[in-house]
Amino acid sequence: MRIVRIAPMRVASLQVISITPELQAWAKLRAWAETKGLLGDLDKHPVFGFNNPPPEPGKREYGYEFWIRVGEDIESDTVVEVKEVEGGEYAVTTCVLKEELESDFFKEHGILESWHRLDEWAKANGYKYRGHPGLEKPHDPDAGPDLVLDLYYPITK
Fold first, then answer.
1. Cα separation, 120 vs 124, whole angstroms
2. At 151, is the secondary structure helix, strand, or coil?
3. Are the C-beta atoms of 67 and 85 separated by less than 8 Å?
4. Which letter does DSSP use for residue 117 in this model?
5. CATH number of domain containing 108
6. pTM of the full predicted structure?
7. What per-residue confidence (pLDDT) applies to 101?
8. pLDDT tens by residue, 86-144
9. What's the total number of domains in the chain?
10. What is the extent of the structural domain holding 35?
């Protein structure tokens, strides 16, 4: 676990609602970002994602939103909406996902255990959840079932 401060940033945002929104949203964002030359430097243009809206019991469809940091030269268009995102402090850990992204196991176990550990660590160390979405930052968004994510849990003292 480590504490990371993210500065306010300008992002291009894209959301999909389906039974596999992560995969569909990434395919759309990748196609858009490649035409802008944004994926060649993921340090300058990091990609973050989060459930929006989150899964609900009894419903197969849910939403996933991706953000990619962009400069002033990028504007909203028919694919993405440009937003200003507030920064803040996050407790961060790394999660390695080996299961198929579409599997029920992934949705029910893989990433939830890592989020749970972050929540417990934050509470044990005097932090509270800040009420901002928890973010998932893929090391390589195209890694498929070997996806490695940094999980960003928003915190405040």
1. 6
2. strand
3. yes
4. H
5. 3.20.80.10
6. 0.89
7. 46
8. 999 999 999 887 644 444 544 555 678 888 899 999 999 999 999 888 999 999 888 87
9. 1
10. 2-156
Task: Look up residue 66 and give its two tokens.
Answer: 């991706």
The tokens describing 55, both together, are 């899964």
Neighbour-count burial of 21, counting CB atoms closer than 10 A to its CB (0-12 exposed, 13-18 middle, 19+ buried): buried
Task: Find the DSSP H helices in 11-110.
Answer: 21-36, 104-105
How big is the chain, counted in residues?
157
Beta bridge partners of 91: 3, 153
pLDDT tens digits for range 15-50: 999 999 999 999 999 999 999 999 999 999 999 999
Number of H helices, E strands in the chain: 3, 9
Q: Is 35 exposed, middle or buried (0-12, 13-18, 19+ CB in 10 A)?
A: exposed
Query: Cα(125)–Cα(32) distance, rounded to whole angstroms?
Result: 40
